Amino acid sequence: MSMYTDPNHIHVQDPGQVEGNMVFTYLDVFGKDKEYIQELKDHYRRGGLGDVKIKRYLIEVLEEELAPIRARREEFAKDPAAVMEILRQGSAQAEQVAAQTLAEVKTAMGINYFG
């Protein structure tokens, strides 16, 4: 609830600035109901819409967005050994890619002394 909004929007009835308001920035990115978000923006600009209301709506939007991620994380947490195996395999693949990239860089720079 301490997210930056509009420092000049002191009272609910005061007109607010949407541009630079991080709550609306996040709503633009994560919100699915663009029509409702536009209504909120228009209302905020006119005045009569408080920061708490838009922040609560943002919380709802973010909770909806994060729910599947949290559910998947819970599933992974049930099998730590499987997670470690996934990480091991990913690390092995990353090491191969990094080694190939490093070899290409050394060749391009003319410092591949052992290749």
UniProtKB/TrEMBL annotation:
It comes from the Bacteria. PANTHER family: TRYPTOPHAN--TRNA LIGASE, MITOCHONDRIAL. This is Tryptophanyl-tRNA synthetase II.
